[in-house]
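Try this one yourself first.
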């Protein structure tokens, strides 16, 4: 029996299949390489010289690099399109494609939003607050709050901030009574804490604080950390800084996307954003240790005097916080719901952390304290 030559028919089939694939777009690789770049215009809530704006551009660069040209995020500084406190609304409306800030800046729309940062968070440090957000129910609660105020955004929280100082004072405070009557800048639920303690609060955005201090419009102010405070010019107008506070001891950053713009992205670009947030969170926490410790030294060289906030003032903050959350919970079910979720997580995670973590101050003092051995 003579064998049948199948090669001509096979060649014709492969040629036809290839032609059909090109016509229907089945050969994906060339289409991907020719894909048009998606450009997102972001704005931060920070002045361009602040390290916080640098954190925002760090995140954008990570996403841009990983996207390989398919997605490009451009980050503008605060005020380039809208004022800092109007960022959420601008992203919601699509005036901006996204932004970088803190949840506490949206406090005026729903007080519960400030619980992601303001107050002692039942003893949780900022990384534990992020753990609660990502694994303890916080993320779903934040989405529920945004839905309740008709805000359609995609929100990522990241970047655990170091404990913030009590602030910069023209005269250092030594007792609770010294806080009464002070014209003081803060934001979020910290407004309620300090108001309860008798201060006259003015919630100015970051770029307006130092000019207000310089002109005497306020007597004292808190912002965030040694690097930001130095770059924004605090030591040029005030020489006293009080360290340690519970008013914002567990805060983190927020990266916002307009929901429509985000939803239109393909799955692989959404994944790049997701992992980019996680990478930026770790990198930011490491950079903060490096830069904050360096700038702390530079502030001392510039003549700034640092004082530990007296325990009496810290205890007064906790008492003021208790009164604040009692008032807010009474007429705000979402506020009460967030607190309940935090408390359950904090009791379990806090006990674990407090029991397991060694006292690092003991080791530090052993090597660098007054009685340390000189090598």
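Now uncover the answer:
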């Amino acid at each position: 029996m003579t064998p049948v030559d199948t090669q001509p028919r096979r060649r014709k089939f492969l040629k036809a299949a290839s032609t059909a694939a090109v016509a229907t777009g089945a050969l994906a690789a060339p289409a991907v390489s020719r894909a048009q770049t998606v450009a997102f215009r972001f704005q931060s809530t920070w002045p361009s010289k602040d390290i916080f704006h640098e954190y925002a551009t760090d995140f954008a660069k990570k996403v841009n690099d990983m996207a390989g040209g398919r997605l490009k995020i451009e980050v503008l500084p605060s005020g380039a399109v809208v004022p800092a406190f109007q960022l959420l609304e601008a992203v919601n409306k699509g005036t901006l494609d996204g932004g970088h800030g803190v949840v506490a800046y949206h406090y005026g729309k729903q007080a519960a939003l400030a619980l992601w940062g303001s107050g002692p968070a039942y003893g949780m440090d900022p990384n534990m607050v992020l753990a609660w957000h990502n694994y303890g129910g916080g993320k779903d609660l934040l989405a529920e709050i945004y839905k309740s105020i008709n805000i359609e955004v995609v929100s990522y929280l990241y970047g655990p901030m170091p404990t913030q100082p009590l602030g910069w004072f023209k005269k250092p405070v030594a007792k609770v009574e010294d806080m009464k009557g002070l014209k003081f800048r803060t934001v979020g639920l910290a407004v309620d804490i300090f108001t309860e303690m008798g201060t006259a609060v003015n919630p100015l955005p970051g770029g307006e604080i130092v000019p207000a201090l310089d002109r005497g419009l306020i007597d004292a102010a808190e912002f965030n950390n040694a690097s930001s405070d130095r770059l924004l010019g605090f030591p040029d107008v005030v020489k006293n800084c009080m360290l340690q506070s519970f008013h914002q001891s567990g805060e983190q950053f927020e990266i916002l996307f307009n929901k429509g713009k985000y939803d239109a992205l393909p799955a692989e670009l959404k994944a790049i954003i997701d992992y980019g947030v996680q990478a930026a969170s770790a990198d930011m926490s490491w950079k903060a240790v490096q830069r904050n410790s360096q700038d702390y030294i530079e502030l001392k060289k510039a003549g700034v005097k640092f004082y530990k906030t007296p325990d009496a003032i810290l205890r007064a903050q906790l008492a003021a916080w208790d009164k604040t959350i009692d008032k807010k919970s009474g007429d705000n079910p979402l506020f009460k719901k967030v607190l309940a979720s935090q408390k359950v997580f904090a009791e379990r995670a806090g006990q674990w952390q407090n029991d397991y973590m060694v006292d690092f101050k003991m080791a530090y003092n052993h090597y660098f304290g007054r009685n340390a051995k000189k090598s």
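Discussion: The first strand starts at residue 38 and ends at 44. The chain has 15 helices and eleven strands.
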